[in-house]
Structures are given as structure tokens and as C-alpha cells.
Amino acid sequence: MRRASLLALTFLITVSAHAAIDDTMRRGFNVSEGGKLTVNVDVGNVTIVTGGTGVAVEVVRTARTSDAGRAAEVFREHAVQFAQNGNDVTVTTDWDHDDRDWFNFGGSPLRNVKFNIRVPARYSVDVRTSGGNINVSRINGATELRTSGGNVTIEGASGDVLVRTSGGNIRIGDVNGIVDARTSGGNVMLARVGGTVTARTSGGNIKIEGSGGAIDASTSGGSIEAAFATQPRGDSRLSTSGGNVRVALAPNIGAQIDAKSNGGGVRSDVPVTVIGTQKREQLQGTIGGGGPKLTLRTSGGGIAIRPLG
Q1: The predicted structure's pLDDT at residue 131
Q2: Which of 109, 140, 145, 185 sits between 20 and 30 A of 260, alpha carbons compared?
């Protein structure tokens, strides 16, 4: 009898896990270019594309239940609010639910939430979500993205970019401005950046395909790979406690090199005018007649400097 009860409970849990009801909300806003989209939501994946006129918002929610009454209650608890002020649009949520509700024993009463948003080509965005991924197409404006539990992807941006995530990877395409990208649990992958770069991660690798400005990059659990395509306009520092550091320099770049490795050697395939005594795990000198300081540090790997090409 007890075994039959357990089987019935298992069947109930399985059925409940697969039962779901969807709800879709759509809103449109007549705005011009040059405005700002602000998204501040409790949970959900956010996807932003550019093009067309105005701002179009689609919110797709899925309740973890087959009961229409219960689903309506869940959607009421997850209140989505829209506002427009001039050319600016705001999307927020207020999730008034009780985590002790027995309906939640299998997880959140919301199985999935998606925010699909289209903005004009020249528009700024400020997105914050506590539990999802953020994906943005190429944006012609300032971009600020924050999530506590997902990945962040930006195809490209013409303005400055700030990204924060506590639990995912960061991937950013070509950016004309400044990039400040930080994650506590993933990789940071950047394409060509016109301005300065700040990159931080405690649990992954950092790769920068090309920078026109100074680079400040550090990781506690991976390797760093960076390319300087043009003369940096300030001092740079690349530091890791758990991997290798690889740097590529364009032929016309001048820099002051200060490289130290506690877990491997230092190698340069670019001519260096050495200052002091050259050691296997340390290199100090100038490249191309000198310039801004390039500090390279690793405690768990080697350092390599090579020509870009």
C-alpha cells in the first residue's frame, strides 16, 4: 500500500512538472531615437534587438501548473508594469509571491519568463534581472547590463558598455567606447574595443581580440589573452593567479615591460631592450622605444609576448 502511494505521488509530481500554462503580454511605445530603455525585473531572460520605430515589448510567461485558476493567480502575483516618459521607456516587475506556498515545492511557480524587446537603432539600454540571461544585438548607445544568475551577450555597441553578472559568461562584440565587464563565475570574451578595457573574473578565462586603449584585466582561475592593435593611451595590467598570460603587440607599439611569473617562464618574440639582469621568470625593459607601462603577472603559468599578425 505504501509503495502504491509513493508511485502515485511520483506520478503526480511528474505530471505537475510537465504541466504549464502560457501568458503573453505585448505593449508598444511611440518614441524617437536617443531615448533610454530601463528594464528592472525579478526574474527572466531579456533579449533586445534594434531596428524599426518605437519600442515594442513582448513578455512571455509560463506558469508551472495546468490549473487555469492557479495560473491566473501566479500571473497576478508577477505584476509587470510599463511606463513611458518622453522618449524613455521603463519595464519593471513586482513579484508578490510566498515561497512557502506548497505549489512551489517543485520550484518556482513561474517556469519561465522571457522579455523580448525591440528598440530604435540609436537608443540606450539599462537592464537588470535577478535570474536570467541577457542578449543584446548591436546597440548605438550607452549600454548597462546586470544579472545575478546568467550569461550576458552583446553583438556590439557604439557607446560605452558596463556588464555585471555573478554567475555566467560575458561575450561582447566590437565596441567603439569603453568596456567594463565583470563576472564572478565565467569567462570574459571581448572582440575589438576602441576604448579602455576593465575585465574581471574569479572563475574563468579572459580573451580580448583587440584593444585601442589601456587594459586592466585580472582573473583568479584562468588564463588571459589580449591583443594591442594600436598604441595604448595609458598603463595596462594583466594579472592571473591560475593560468597563462599571452600578449600580442602591433608592430608600431612602444611600451615599458614589467613581466613576472611564479609558475613558469617569461618569453618574448618581440625585441626588448632589457633593463637589469634578465631572468627566466622575470623580464623588464622597453619595446619600440618605450611608452606606457605594461605589467604582466601570473602565479600559475607562463608569460608570452608575440607580434600581432
Answers
A1: 83
A2: 185
Q: How far apart are CA 166 and CA 265, in angstroms?
A: 33
213 phi and psi, to 5 degrees? -130, -170
